[in-house]
Amino acid sequence: MPEKTIPILPCRALQPVLDFYTALGFAVTYQQRSPNPYAVVQRGGIELQFFAMKQYEPAVSVSTCYVLTDDVDGLYQAFRAGLKEAYGRIPTRGLPRVGPLKDMTYGVRQFLVTDPGGNCVRVGQRTGGERHHGPAPEETFARALHFASLLADSKGDPAGAAKVVDRVLGLTDETPTRVQLLQLLVLRADVAARLGDEEAAATALARAAALDLTAAERDQGRDALTRLADLRGSPRP
Fold first, then answer.
1. 198-209 residues labelled b (16+ CB within 10 A) or e (exposed)
2. Exposure pattern of 30-52 as b/e (b: 16+ CB <10 Å)?
3. Which of 33, 64, 132, 148 could be joined to 161 by an S-S link, Cβ 3.0–4.6 Å?
4. Which residues contact 230 (CB under 8 A, 6 or more apart)?
5. 63, 10 in Cβ contact below 8 A?
6. Cβ–Cβ under 8 Å, residues 97 and 231
7. Which residue, 221, 217, 155, 222, is CA-closest to 191?
8. DSSP class of residue 135?
9. Element (H, E) at 191
10. How many CB atoms lie within 10 A of CB 236?
């Protein structure tokens, strides 16, 4: 039998976590209430296990795991649909939340899901042979997007990402393409919402929504447009 790794992740209470993963299409295959609260969820080849601790604080959790798939776009759409049905919206901030789908520099296309226990599940599909970060882009706005995305998602530093985006959007001697501007504005709105800066989020969302894109540009920026729609549909917590 080939080896298999199964993450065992913490939470404060099992039921909110199980309800969340049920919304994502997982089945609860085992649940134990005593002597220790413990549960298992499974969706296809993905299995996650959880244990509950009353003193655990989800808001400061650093627990994470990585799920590799051969259909990241399909899982992303399925997860979004399940969350919208369960919550009436797609949660984009706080706990739980789902992040944007992006092509990463280390050869994967991925998105992040954070459950009510604060556990971050990274879901990705390999798109290339490289398994480490390639060189940062040289072009000004592509480079800004690269570093701001890493700060926002990989490092968990939305304030740092906001500074990078604000600096590049303030340039007067260079102009981004419309797709780059869309991506920058959507990322700026995303991190502003996480920081609780509702005014900055609303301003960036309005600017992004007002862009007049061609069909080709909309296709090129489809990930950002999907995130734009999710952010505009997420009310304040």
1. eebbeebbebbb
2. eeeeeeebbbbbbbeebbbebbb
3. 148
4. 80, 90, 92, 98, 100
5. yes
6. no
7. 155
8. P
9. helix 178-194
10. 9
Helix, strand, coil percentages, rounded to 5, for the chain: 45, 20, 40
Confidence class for position 2, pLDDT limits 50, 70, 90:
confident
Sorting pLDDT into bands at 50, 70 and 90, what band is 236? very low
In angstroms, rounded to a whole number, what is the distance separating the alpha carbons of residues 121 and 115? 8
Tokens (6 digits) for 159: 């304030």
Contacts of 121 (CB under 8 A, 6+ apart): 48, 64, 65, 66, 67, 112, 113, 114, 115
Position 63, amino acid: S
Say how far apart CA 151 and CA 153 lie, in whole Å: 6
CB-based contacts of 131, cutoff 8 Å, min separation 6: 106, 107
* Structure tokens belonging to residue 227: 């995130």
Run of H or E including 21: helix 14-23
pTM score, two decimals? 0.90
Burial classification of residue 148, based on how many CB atoms lie within 10 Å of its CB (0-12 exposed, 13-18 middle, 19 or more buried) = buried
Contact predicate 169/186, CB 8 Å: no
